[in-house]
Design a protein that fits this description.
Number of helices: 9
Number of strands: 12
Largest sheet: 7 strands, mixed
């Protein structure tokens, strides 16, 4: 058997472990060449955007998955595992200000997967799909080695004005819905996709750029603001982040910035916005808390996350959230 045909190697410098997720995605874009359009029509945003009519209607397409041992284990019920699969994709649609429509599900699984477990997994998908008026219209099943269960879901949605990343300008404000950190204590399987909030923001002309927080704000924020200098003045810390901080000994801010799987929206508003009016309107419509965390500064050679901790002054935060590899 030829070693050159094997996808695996024990020399780290020759594997995907030698680069960041961001660099890996850049490499994939390069390998695809001309068949990969520029974002948002191709790789680079929460969803791919396709213009499908002459009436400014856009098709949104995203795909995300869950794997046994990576995204869930025996502490998670099969119903919640299925719910998480659907919810992760719904969050991507929400982050572009879209309304979800249709999904397909692909499974790679060992032949020893229990039928009763799989039934509950699909019921978890179906329950959340019904709540958000999504139709599951197809998919695929394939056999995998023992111990493997991987499910991928591809979700499509519609939007009149997809809110892309990196549309911010100096003076814009950065906001976050909900609270951050400690998702491992339960939120990662029970979060509510911010579809309603995303749709409303899509209708506001002063809302400029948006994404969801999946790998932690420390990693995701650069994807929103690019190389603009951004000083974070406050963070909405979750109770779980505070609780986890007592166990880990880490600063609650570190949990809020790096834990990941918050699935909250982070978005920018134009500097001309009347923020008090915006907050008043938001509170009249939504129970979801919202926090202004930063103002966008000038462009720099590269992004640096700076935290303003009051009496402690400003400090550069160098950690970068969850890295897949």
């Amino acid at each position: 058997m030829s070693q050159t045909n094997s996808p695996f190697c024990d020399r780290t410098e020759e594997t995907i472990a030698s680069m960041s997720e961001t660099r890996l995605i850049q490499s994939i874009q390069e390998w695809l060449g001309n068949v990969c359009p520029v974002s948002p029509h191709g790789i680079g945003d929460d969803c791919a955007v396709t213009d499908i009519s002459n009436e400014s209607k856009y098709l949104l397409t995203t795909v995300d998955g869950v794997a046994w041992g990576e995204h869930f284990d025996t502490s998670v019920t099969p119903g919640l595992a299925g719910r998480k699969l659907m919810a992760r994709n719904l969050s991507d649609i929400a982050s572009m200000g879209g309304k979800p429509r249709r999904a397909v599900v692909s499974l790679w699984m060992a032949k020893s997967v229990r039928l009763d477990w799989l039934r509950q997994f699909y019921e978890g998908i179906a329950k959340l799909a019904e709540e958000f008026e999504v139709q599951v219209v197809g998919g695929d099943v394939a056999r995998a080695p023992e111990g493997v269960f991987i499910a991928d879901l591809c979700l499509q949605g519609m939007s009149d004005r997809p809110l892309e990343r990196k549309q911010v300008q100096p003076g814009d404000s950065i906001w976050v819905t909900g609270s951050l950190g400690g998702s491992i204590l339960g939120k990662h399987t029970a979060f509510i996709p911010r579809i309603a909030e995303g749709l409303w923001l899509n209708e506001q002309k002063w809302a400029k750029s948006m994404m969801d927080i999946s790998d932690g704000l420390a990693k995701d924020l650069p994807s929103l603001v690019g190389k603009y200098h951004t000083v974070i003045d406050q963070l909405p810390l979750s109770d779980a982040a505070l609780e986890l901080s007592k166990e880990s000994g880490k600063d609650p801010w570190e949990h809020a910035l790096c834990d990941g799987e918050d699935y909250e929206l982070v978005f920018a508003t134009d500097r001309e916005i009347d923020e008090s009016k915006f907050l008043q309107e938001w509170k009249e419509i939504f129970e979801t808390p919202i926090t202004r965390i930063a103002q966008v500064g000038d462009a720099r050679p590269e992004f640096a996350m700076v935290l303003n901790r009051g009496a402690a002054g400003q400090q550069v935060f160098e950690k970068r959230g969850y890295e897949h590899f």
